[in-house]
Design brief:
Chain A is mainly beta. Helix content of chain A is about 0%, strand content about 50%. Chain A contains no helices and eleven strands. In chain A, the strands form two sheets. In chain A, strands 2, 4, 5, 6, 9, 10 and 11 form a seven-stranded mixed sheet that branches. A four-stranded antiparallel sheet of chain A has the order 1-3-8-7, with no helix packed on it. The N and C termini of chain A lie far apart (about 35 Å). Chain B contains no helices and eleven strands. In chain B, a hairpin with a 6-residue loop joins strand 9 (about 85-95) and strand 10 (about 100-105).
């Protein structure tokens, strides 16, 4: 299957700082990228959907000013957690898919964020 | 009601036995369906797509029932390595949004534990 690379895989940051997570599609053009968050023993929760070149669409309850998403090219999307707090500690996963409506999504390896 | 619902389990399955579980979805306009497998602390990986006619891949069989709005996954001759969380994913068209597009919604996952 297609490859999606997410970086970093693990990050520890101090409360109040910002963290940027990158998601790259290595061998296909990702017109749509999704960002998810997963707390322990819970399912993936969609945070936002981003289409290349346009503003991300955020799910209800997700603060767009806190979770900044940029999808400037067909192979790269970034999620920046601004002014991180301990409650933002979670597993963040991106996924990417092509323009075809019914194709599956390919997932990055995930980023485990710990805010101390 | 959640858009995509699954029995969280766990399903404790003797090695070699058959296990089956369902996933219900609320959006009748949903277009495509997938089963993903997620191991602890790892990203989800596509197990199989679910076609209208149902499909089989080795020991795994997926079925779609549009009338009752559910999909199912059956695992035959369970192996210890089948222990994982199985995520049901539904692709729906996001209507009423500024940037209309398709959206993947995950169920909460069904945990399967295969024991010797």
């Amino acid at each position: 299957g297609a490859v999606v690379s997410q970086h970093p895989s693990r990050v520890i940051c101090k409360s109040g700082t910002s963290v940027k997570i990158e998601c790259r599609s290595l061998d296909f053009q990702a017109t749509t990228m999704f960002w998810y968050r997963q707390f322990p023993k819970q399912s993936l929760m969609l945070m936002a959907t981003s289409n290349e070149g346009s503003k991300a669409t955020y799910e209800q309850g997700v603060e767009k000013d806190k979770f900044l998403i940029n999808h400037a090219s067909l192979t790269l999307s970034t999620l920046t957690v601004t002014s991180a707090h301990p409650e933002d500690s979670s597993f963040y996963i991106c996924s990417a898919r092509t323009a075809s409506m019914n194709t599956e999504a390919f997932f990055g390896q995930g980023t485990r964020l710990t805010v101390v | 009601r959640k858009e995509v619902e699954q029995d969280p389990g766990p399903f404790n399955v003797p090695e070699g036995a058959t296990v089956a579980f369902n996933c219900t979805y609320s959006n009748s306009a949903s277009q495509s369906f997938f089963w993903y497998r997620q191991d602890c602390r790892k990203e989800p990986k596509l197990l199989m797509s679910v076609y209208s006619s149902g499909n089989e891949d080795g020991r795994f069989t997926a079925q779609l029932n549009r009338a009752s709005q559910y999909i199912s996954l059956l695992i035959r001759d369970s192996k210890l390595s089948d222990s994982a969380t199985y995520l049901c994913v539904v692709n729906s068209l996001s209507v009423g949004r500024k940037a209309a597009g398709n959206k993947l919604t995950f169920g909460g996952g069904t945990r399967v534990l295969v024991k010797p």
